[in-house]
Amino acid sequence: MSEVAEAGARRRARGGGGAARRAERTAVRIEAARYIERAVPTMEILNEEALQIIERNAETVLEEIGVAFTDNPGALALWREAGADVRDERVRIPRGLARKLCATAPATITQHARNPERNVEIGGKTTVFAPVYGPPFVRDAEGGRRYATMADFETFVKLGYMSKWLHHSGGTVCEPTDIAVNKRHLDMIHAHMRLSDKPFMGSVTDPARAADSVAMCEILFGKEFVAENTVMTSLININSPMTLDGVMMGALEVYARANQACIISPFIVGGAMAPVSVMGTLTQVLAEVLAGVAYSQLVRPGAPVIFGAFVASIDMNSGAPTFGTPEATKILWGAGQLARRLGLPFRSGGALCGSKLPDAQAAYETANTLNAALLGGVNFMLHACGWLEGGLVASFEKFVMDADQLGALHSIAAGIDISEDAQAMDAIREVGPGGHYLGCAHTQANFKTAFWRSGLLDYKPFETWAEEGARDTQMLATARVKQMLADYQAPPLDEGVAEGLRTFVAKRKAAEPDAFV
Questions:
Q1: Which residues pair with 311 in a beta bridge?
Q2: What string of DSSP letters covers 351-384?
Q3: Which residues does 86 contact at the CB level (< 8 Å), separation at least 6?
Q4: Which residues lie below 8 Å from residue 425, measured CB to CB, with a gap of 6+?
Q5: Which segments carry the region annotation Disordered (predicted)?
Q6: Is residue 438 part of a domain?
Q7: Lowest CB count within 10 Å: 7, 136, 192, 348, which one?
Q8: Taken in order 16, 22, 23, 24, is the CA torsion positive or negative?
Q9: How far is 253 from 259, CA to CA, in rounded Å?
């Protein structure tokens, strides 16, 4: 080959390499980060004296005041048999009994996904991110605030599947109001199973709907696998103060008997459903969780449960709940300590805010809560992205804004690399006094991974930013949502399993008339 031909071949090779690199950069890649294993210290805000006071006071609440277990004679019978003082629907639990019952609950839970690479560990030093849960409204920049539909629900599931830093598909990411109340759980569970291969949550709005969730998992995973493994996590809210209702208990019973995980979570707005003081609220939280977890163990010893604490404060002028406040942070940190002393996984936190828009208020309050939850040792972080307007609204733009920032939490949780390469002594020697590090060997070897970089926020110079439309973060997020949905590709699902799920959903829907209350 002549020198000219060799030179042309080299140019074509370089051009081909460049084209390959460009193709690699623009190819659709669905990445999913592994759940976090925290390498940073956990905030311990309460000293031993304070912890003992709260634990002693919580036992007093259970023994002297008691907890209401309403509309469930079977629960009252179980408590009576266990040695509790049961009068009408009030259950007074002797000192130490609830804690003794809680001891059979596992310290960590493996929740299996249909893609085993997406399995998550909940407990110990791990943190799992799950999206917003429960809003009846949705919001986006183009359509504004409106009631959620099933199409909106499916959009959120797709965004969750496409979000690298989100480990979990969640549950009721929004409430699809265009589907009958008694049937929408079927469509929601089906959407999680079809459109994502991440783990998900089951229905809790009726014991029969919890049973449907278990039955659908038996189709997806196989009946024997479900009997031996946890494939769902579900949210059992306590009606604070100190009441467990028949619906929540019924769902808890279904999941406990099926070996599926439940988050036992007081729903507290301080000053309305709990005392205004941090110590008083923590006392009530612990008493309610002890009662709920203990009951799960009466139903089935060893049933997987998570210590939950959803806490907001209240604006004493308007009565509205507030989020990202110092008091809520203190309660979160204290509840985490109490959960760890019980040996239970801990749920709290999220991208909580009271703002009506994905604006500066939303960003401040969200950042406060996300960072507090990470440092507070939260194992299962529900509402980690998409929450707006005190939980009334699920926002598409805020979903991707929050999901992007979860990447920063991954980086913080990893701690500091102290390897020889990270010590960078060769770089310091190479550059010396008065130099710069941009071109040194260490920088060239590490620049791609040295700093966490947002996939959404704008870092361009002013002139470039202005030429590209001077877009604010919400505008960037709107574009990001559209791009993610355009790139979405459903994970493969065995056709036999898919047909089994379709048949089950159709049969259950045909079995009863629509009900919208």
A1: 268
A2: S----SSSSHHHHHHHHHHHHHHHHTT-SEETT-
A3: 76, 79, 80, 92
A4: none
A5: 1-23
A6: no
A7: 7
A8: positive
A9: 10
CA-based nearest residue to 204, from 135, 251, 261? 251
In angstroms, the CA 145 to CA 153 distance is: 15
Given a cut of 60, whether residue 507 has pLDDT beyond it is: yes
> Mean pLDDT throughout 449-467?
95
466 falls within a domain = no
In a domain, 88, yes or no: no
Q: Is residue 74 part of a domain?
A: no
- Residue 25: predicted pLDDT: 52
DSSP character at residue 455: S
28 is written with which tokens?
A: 């659709």
Q: Is the pLDDT of residue 75 over 80?
A: yes
Q: How far, in Å, CA of 192 to CA of 172, rounded?
A: 10
DSSP states of 171-202: S-SS--TTS-TTTHHHHHHHHHHHH--S-EE-
Rg (CA), the chain: 25
Q: pLDDT tens, 205-253?
A: 999 999 999 999 999 999 999 999 999 999 999 999 999 999 999 999 9
As a whole number, mean pLDDT of residues 256-265 equals: 98
Tell me the H-state helices in 237-349.
Answer: 246-257, 278-299, 326-342
CATH number (domain holding residue 219)? 3.20.20.480
Give me the DSSP letters along 95-137.
TTHHHHHHTTS-S-EEEPPSSGGG-EEESTTEEEE------SE
Residue 402 has pLDDT above 80, yes or no: yes
Please report which helix (H) or strand (E) contains residue 26, including its range.
helix 3-26
Largest CA distance in the chain: 100
- How long is the chain? 517
Closest CA to 381 of 58, 45, 126: 126
| Overall average pLDDT of the 163-187 stretch | 98
* Phi-psi sector, 113: left (phi>0), alpha (psi -120 to 50), beta: beta
Q: Which residue has the tokens 């390499």?
A: 17
Cβ-proximal residues to 287 (8 Å cutoff; 6+ apart), any chain: 58, 59, 61, 62, 67, 242
Q: What is the pLDDT of residue 126?
A: 98
**Boundaries of domain holding 109:** 100-414
Cα-to-chain-centroid distance, residue 263: 11
Confidence of residue 319 (pLDDT cuts 50, 70, 90): confident
Q: Which two tokens stand for residue 434?
A: 């008065």
DSSP annotation of 27 reads S
Judge whether 341 and 372 are in contact, CB under 8 Å: no
**356 pLDDT more than 90:** yes
